Amino acid sequence: MNIEYKEEELFTTLDKLKGFRTQMTFQKAVLAYMASQQLYQSEEKKLREAFKALDKDNNGTISKNELIEGYILVYKNEQRAKEEVERIMRRIDVNQNGAIDYNGKTY
User: Fold this and answer.
1) CATH architecture of the domain covering 55-107
2) Which residues pair with 99 in a beta bridge?
3) Any idea what DSSP says for residue 100?
4) Of the candidates 39, 44, 41, 69, the residue with the CA atom closest to the CA atom of residue 54
5) Cβ atoms 95, 101 nearer than 8 A
6) Burial of 66 from C-beta contacts in 10 A (0-12 / 13-18 / 19+)
């Protein structure tokens, strides 16, 4: 009888341990999610600030020329900047209006 009790106790303890491990895995997942959201918010803030810096006329869009000006600062080469902006505009300017639209909240 004593041996059976110990087996039941061991089973219960092992079952609780399994639940604890699952709970720890869940907690790790939640912490990882929270960390990624913090990183996302931080990156989003930096991106929003970059958009505002490029948007010289503060109209909520970055024109092709504004983007070229920004890339000239990066590349120190107007031709290279223009080529890069052409590639970017082909991918990003989905409505073909010659600008990257953003309103300060989304981009």
Assistant:
1) Orthogonal Bundle (1.10)
2) 63
3) E
4) 69
5) yes
6) buried
pLDDT beneath 70, residues of the chain:
1-7, 9-27, 39, 103-107
The angle that helices 78-92 and 64-75 make with each other, rounded to 10 degrees, is 130
- Considering only CA atoms, which of 106, 89, 105, 87 is closest in space to residue 97? 89
Give dist(CA 100, CA 97) in Å, integer.
8
Q: Give me the half-sphere count of Cα atoms (radius 13 Å) on the Cβ side of residue 88.
A: 18
- Residue 87 CA to residue 35 CA, distance in Å, equals 33
DSSP conformational letter for 47: H
- Residue 106's nearest CA partner among 61, 65, 67 is 61
**Global pTM exceeds 0.70:** no
